[in-house]
Amino acid sequence: MNCRLALFLTVMSLAVAQSTERLPNVVLIMADDVGYECFGAYGSRQYQTPRIDKLADGGVRFTNCYSTPLCTPSRVALMTGASNVRNYADFGSLLPDQYTIANLFHDGGYATAVAGKWQLQGGGNAEGVPAGHGFDTYCLWNTPMTERRRFWNPSLESDGKILEVEEDDYGPDILADFLLRFIETNKAKSFFVYYPMVLVHSPFVPTPHSENRHSEDEQKNFEDMVAYTDVIVGRIHDKLEELDLLRNTVFVFTSDNGSHHTLASRLGGNTIVGDKGAPTDAGTHVPLIVNAPGRIPGGRVIDDLIDFADFLPTLADAAGLALPAQDHADGRSFWDRLRGEPGQPREWLYTYYFPRPFAATFDTPYAHPEVLYVRDKRYKLYGSGELFDVRADPSEEKPLPVSDAESQLVRRKLQSALDSMPSHGLRIPPERGIASRSASRPRW
Hints:
By secondary structure, the protein is of the alpha/beta class. The protein has twelve helices and 16 strands.
């Protein structure tokens, strides 16, 4: 049978099945601080991720998904479907006037839950920040009530109360258990689960499956943490299978930014050193796997450019939910592409990055100068004028010469894209970014 005909028949059969089903469940999982290079589905033999790899084999794996370089900016973009240039205010903050992906699903009649790392203070209501942003229930680390422990003997808040835990209680297990109970409770209705994991962020400590629970080898502990991330993803997938919900669930796995700069990963004969906090490939190139066996044809790899603002409109399309009217909607749905249709893939994506605009200096990690750039699959142009061939030079060590004929053509194309977007954060006082607007990228 002709491949195109087979794909068409698969898509049509999925459409017929969907017409008789309730709205699909959505499970959105975002790991913390781990680049694409740490997963077997992307070619790694160093890390053990069989469950995530299986999701990729049966679903769709994207090879050009890019986050912002740091956690809060990525979370704000994912939650709101907008570029940071429009609504980013400060590190750890989500403005209370923002309509979020959870608001969308809640308003659409879904049961909604979030568990994991919050780090989005500055919005919601006095009783619980997540409730004001559309979540019916939550179990979170990094809220105003919690302390810094996220792994062993964790400090976690659930629906306004600090949980009582023991020394040997492991935070990621508690958070996963919370979501498994939520799924069980809401199995008869449509639900939206957002799981911004606390794994695999530092401190790099042993997991319940580590051979040496006292190990101080950070690289080995990190590898164990990646493996345990995979275990938890598998547990959630198993629960959906146990409840016969897989064929009516859109399951998404990604990460908020690249790996920590103290970590090294082997991939395809190369060593990739993490560059979290910097806008390089190693700081922003993250995995994206979508598995929805009842709704999209699987076993595919797509090289479309994906921005974190794209998740909200894509999942809205997946659920058939209408987006509210917005002055600016930067996200672009890739649901048609997941369904095997032509869609409208991005030609470029724009990133604005100013994670700590009120920092006194930029000498400390993750207090990066204001920077913006546009990239396509090969080239990246910064607002400062630096142009890089990021396919040949992923570490961005050698800017392309201005006089080069080919780079001039690329510059014109990408500069036009840059000019179509604001040049400074709309929620940040103008004076906070002027001095650093054309600053070079720091290295730590």
